[in-house]
Specification:
By secondary structure, this protein is an alpha+beta fold. The protein has 2 domains: about 30 residues; about 120 residues, PCu(A)C copper chaperone (Immunoglobulin-like). It contains 1 helix and 10 strands. Strands 1, 2, 3, 4, 5, 6, 7, 8, 9 and 10 form a 10-stranded mixed sheet that branches. The radius of gyration is 21 Å and the shape is globular. The N and C termini lie far apart (about 60 Å).
Length: about 160
């Protein structure tokens, strides 16, 4: 390859990378901080609070912190943790942040961490799909589509 052709190729590649990065910055298109595996919502009748479940996988070399959740389909979404007290009683508590360790995963599953979905903004039934937005401490967001399953579903 001659030097002028090499120079033209190198310049073209540099411009291509520069414009693709500028487009990503302008549109907010950044890589997702986590991968989401098997998201689903357990539907409850009579507009009772529903629960959302998903496994969050962090393929990066740094911890990722889930700092907030919201949904266009529900008025309120909260991150909760189910627990069993020393006396054997069960309960739930709200969790402000959830760390997904570097190279690790955290399961939001029945009996543990989960999303509480309250006050549906419209009629939601099994077979529907709802969107839940995950907000991370570093400013990145991920919108995830959760299929809605019947109340008697276990996973």
């Amino acid at each position: 390859m001659t030097f002028p052709r090499f120079l033209a190729l190198a310049l073209g590649l540099s411009l291509s990378l520069a414009f693709s990065n500028a487009h990503a910055a302008a549109t907010g298109a950044v890589s997702a901080p986590v991968e989401t595996v098997k998201p689903w919502v357990r539907w409850m009748p009579a507009n009772l609070p529903a629960a959302g479940y998903v496994t969050l996988v962090n393929p990066s070399k740094e911890d990722v912190v889930l700092a907030g959740v919201s949904s266009p389909d529900y008025a309120e979404v909260m991150l909760h943790e189910s627990y069993t007290a020393a006396d054997g009683s069960a309960g739930m508590r709200m969790v402000d942040r959830l760390t997904i360790p570097a190279g690790g995963r955290v399961a939001l599953a029945p009996g543990g961490y989960h999303l509480m979905l309250m006050d549906a903004r419209h009629r939601i039934e099994p077979g529907d799909t709802v969107v839940i937005d995950l907000a991370f401490a570093d400013g990145r967001h991920v919108s995830v589509r959760f299929p809605v399953k019947p109340a008697n579903t276990r996973s």
